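SEVERITY: medium
COMPONENT: batch folding queue
REPORTER: lab tech (J.R.)

DESCRIPTION
The queue accepted two submissions in a row. Attaching both inputs and their returned structure tokens so the on-call engineer can compare them side by side.

ATTACHMENT 1
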Amino acid sequence: MGTLRPQFRQRFRQRFRQRWQLLFHPSVERQGLAHQARYGRSPAIAEAGFTLLELLVVLLLIGVLASIAAPVWLSFLDNQRLAQAQDGAFRALREAQAKGRQRKRVWEACFRDRNNQVEYSVHPRVGSGGCDNASWQSLLAEASGAAGVAIDPANTTLASKGEAYRMQFQDNGWSNGQLGRVTFQLRGRNDARRSCTFVSTLLGALRGDQDKGCLR
């Protein structure tokens, strides 16, 4: 009995000290002390970090989301490139038509595919034409490269000379010679998507189309 009384007294003092600290510490620290008094360890140690299983689940979810989002994003970029090529061809043809009216002479718009890049030129016709005095520049704002677009020769029906395709406009803005279209495809891929720009009437009307509307 004599040895039990000091032990009881010591436990009582320890519990009293813990209760006293709970009353005068901030709420977070009170929770920590309560946790420590109840379980004999700090919650910072008990709850620190993630388990390996939780990390694996998070990585798995990230991988699934990436596998869904990546193809959609790449398809969107491809469609944007085709649309930019179509818009660039339309602007080049419209510029040649406007220059013909302004300068009162025949102007031509030329297109070619060289070094993995689609190029164009708008200039006055020299002789019978054929892009002989072309000043070539990139059709797209960014270099197309291997991941960009290319001219589809099988479905481009403009008059051609060598590697260049051209469309001429008279001094009144009307078409001069062969009508047709310039068609673009994704470079180096077996993909059915296309974009194209037509010169569809002798009056020089321009229009765009895509996919099946660009095929022969």
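ATTACHMENT 2
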Amino acid sequence: MTILSLIVGPVVGAVIGGFTNKVAIRMLFRPYNPLYIGKVKLPLTPGIIPKRKDDLAKGIAAMVSSKLLNNEVLEANLLSPEMVAKVESAIDGVMGRLLSSQQSLQQFFSQYVPSSQLHESVTSVKEDITNTLYLKLSNPEVGEKVAAMAMEHLENSESKSFLGQIGTFAAVAIFRNSLERKLASLINGMLKDNGRQMIAGLVDQECERFLAKPISQLCQGKEHLLQQIKDALLNAYRLLVTNNLSQIMDALDIQEMVRVRIVEMDMAEMEEMIIQTVDKELRMLVLLGALLGFVMGIITCFF
């Protein structure tokens, strides 16, 4: 046995061991598609992972949906003190910006709602307010009440002395009743004929004035109300997670989402992602193969 044989054997064994493990790792991914000689498909093509990609996707998706992102895990994380604190901080941030904002209410809504839709919504609200007020004011009792109040005011004014000179109490009563009925009829007629137009003009004017006010001005002196809104939003968040998380998860269908994403992933992209993640361990496998080959080369030199 020569020194050369003692060196060549272990070196060749190390090269073969390392190269074999390197090829085996690559064959997990490659070739991406089956290879043919004529009509005969070569064995071990495509690679193991491309060949079992659908099964791999189903397995990973099932594990993610049942173990990693199930309802219990998500609910515990979404309702954890840390997450609730983050939600509260986000609400505080929004409210802080609103309290110092010089934007008008209309400008604020315009950032999130298309102008045509905003105009339609504002118009609808104006019409609802106008119709409600007109329905209330067109009631005949309104004219009667206004007329009665007017007569009471008239009796309590300086004109009361004039009415007292007209005659007896009965005469005054007859005069008042007749005037009150006439006045009530005039008021009801005016409201019926012109009430809608008057109300619409006032509502339109007040709505435009309200929408043009800066948000900071609208929020002034309403800190208690803002705190109530904040508490309501936090409670709504907790209720949403507690009562609706299952329906949200069912609608999202995490398992199918993950499965489809893995199936649609390009094999080169998947290979790169996996190799980058476990690159150190794969290198160790190659070196381990080389070491075993080296040891086997030494052993074969003595047999």
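NOTES FROM REPORTER
The beta strands are 36-37, 40-41.
No errors were logged for either attachment.
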